[in-house]
Amino acid sequence: MLPHRSVLIIPDDEKGYELDLFCVPKHYEEDLDRVIIPHGLIMDRTERLARDIVRDMGGHHIVALCVLKGGYKFFSDLLDYIKALNQNCDKSVPLTVDFIRLKSYCNDQSTNSVKVIGGDELSTLTGKNVLIVEDIVETGRTMETLLSLLSECNPKMVKVVSLLVKRTPRGSGYRPDYMGFEVPDWFLVGYALDYNEYFRDLGHICILNEKAKVKYKV
Ligand code: IMP
Ligand code: MG
């Protein structure tokens, strides 16, 4: 039997929240429709993911591998929660960090090619317990490509945590080991998720409006 993987589901009819109820940067006020996941909720869910990961991987040395750029906020906050657990629990897990940069997106469309465009040599991960930290899994192609590259280097164990997974007919069926939120088939920005590099400097996860897609198009 497959292990049960818990995830907070955001339904297709989710209305989110009006922008006026939260603080968003002035320079993005005209670009956003609604707040879908407020920053505080992201943090609360991340705290629980940290606990689940330490429960399962505690006792082993973990190399946390951040998938840049979109994963950097989640990576940093998740590691802070793991560090807090390490300081306060009987069971603790030594952590080191690594980074890889991948690119697969242009405007709001996933492209068929996933490119590694920077980061450390994956060969340093041989024999290690690796926790891949990603912002969002959509088709699953990025993660499947990374997992296959990584398997050539023979790590001891690989687990994947993604803050978001998208319900999409374009999905390959791939599901990460740990997931924060399952979201509808919408293009989301904020909390380091970008549209052509914009909106990484927005704290909440929001829906972009159609005007903004044209304004920031490349
Ligand atoms: P996949 O290869 O289709 O699973 O796409 C994964 C990558 O596409 C993620 O790591 C993101 O960088 C990007 N991506 C997918 N959906 C979104 C979105 O809604 N907003 C921003 N980036 C996204
Ligand atoms: Mg990403």
TrEMBL record:
Phosphoribosyltransferase domain: residues covered: 41-195
Q: Which cofactor does it need?
A: Mg(2+)
Q: Which GO terms describe its biological process?
A: GMP salvage; guanine salvage; hypoxanthine metabolic process; IMP salvage; purine ribonucleoside salvage
Keyword match Glycoprotein:
no
Q: Which Pfam families match?
A: Pribosyltran
In Swiss-Prot or TrEMBL terms, this protein is called Hypoxanthine phosphoribosyltransferase
**This enzyme's EC code(s):** 2.4.2.8
Can you tell which superkingdom this protein's organism belongs to?
A: Eukaryota
Positions the record marks as coiled coil are none
UniProt lists the family membership as follows: Belongs to the purine/pyrimidine phosphoribosyltransferase family.
Q: Does the keyword Magnesium apply?
A: yes
Quaternary context: Homotetramer.
**Location relative to the cell:** Cytoplasm
- GO MF terms, alphabetically ordered: hypoxanthine phosphoribosyltransferase activity; magnesium ion binding; nucleotide binding
* Pathway(s): Purine metabolism; IMP biosynthesis via salvage pathway; IMP from hypoxanthine: step 1/1
Keywords assigned by UniProt, alphabetized = Cytoplasm, Glycosyltransferase, Magnesium, Metal-binding, Nucleotide-binding, Purine salvage, Transferase
Q: Gene Ontology terms, cellular component aspect?
A: cytosol
Q: Which reactions does this protein catalyse?
A: GMP + diphosphate = guanine + 5-phospho-alpha-D-ribose 1-diphosphate; IMP + diphosphate = hypoxanthine + 5-phospho-alpha-D-ribose 1-diphosphate
Q: What does this protein do?
A: Converts guanine to guanosine monophosphate, and hypoxanthine to inosine monophosphate. Transfers the 5-phosphoribosyl group from 5-phosphoribosylpyrophosphate onto the purine. Plays a central role in the generation of purine nucleotides through the purine salvage pathway.
Query: Per its UniProt entry, what is the enzyme's top EC class, as one word?
Result: transferase
